[in-house]
Amino acid sequence: MKHQKGYLLILFSVFMTACAPPKNPLVIGHRGAKGHLAENTLPSIAKALELEVDGVEIDVFQCASGELVVFHDKTLEKLTNATGYIEELDLDSIQRIEVLNGFTIPTLEEVLDLIKGEVFLNIELKGSRTALKTHELLQIYFEREEWSPEKILISSFNWEELQIFRQANQEVPIAILTEDDPLDAIPIGLELGAVAINPDHKSLNSDNVAKMQKAGFKIYPWTVNDAGDINLITQMGVDGIITDFPERIPKPNY
Length: 254
Hints:
Elements: H1 2-19, E1 26-30, H2 42-50, E2 55-62, E3 68-70, H3 91-95, H4 108-115, E4 120-125, H5 131-143, E5 152-156, H6 159-168, E6 174-178, H7 186-192, E7 196-199, H8 206-214, E8 218-219, H9 227-235, E9 240-243
Parallel strand pairs: 1-2, 1-9, 2-4, 4-5, 5-6, 6-7, 7-8
Antiparallel strand pairs: 2-3
């Protein structure tokens, strides 16, 4: 009888684990709070903080004068009153450009100064020549003790830039961005000691999420906005969700 009771307790434990509700994923504001205000602007990032995100995702390019500016597209036409390639303009010219909603294009320094380590910052390296400049700027903030390495997450679709960053910096966490089969990101993730894989949410299923997590990676899919998609992705057990609408992601009930 004792053996039978023990067996039943094991079965009950397995059943309860299988039926346990999925964990609440971290809420990561996509380019700030893109669904509310112009993406990658200081007001959009401030809005994300107001919505109590766990992290903010932004994009950075190196402009012609060497500074890192926060912008997503290679060209300016879609989101601003200007034309041309952002990497070909100097900072003075960029700061005179008007973005949607009448905002301006910030520098990475301005974003770091705004967030002040209140939440973690996912910096996506865009274009070329961004890895070393990002490392150099972050080192200044680390030395001032205004930010700590664990509050930064560096990601990119350009895996070569991630390799350059890792050669320069072994402390700051890295995430592998991918829009194809996310399992293909595992080898480079292991090579770089990455902590996460950031896949297109449409590429995910319960099987590949489990495989990536078993390999030691957190899973932060992008960009999940629809309520049905949020529920589906949450049920898969992802670790965080990158979204334009942070308020749509369920918060833990304490």
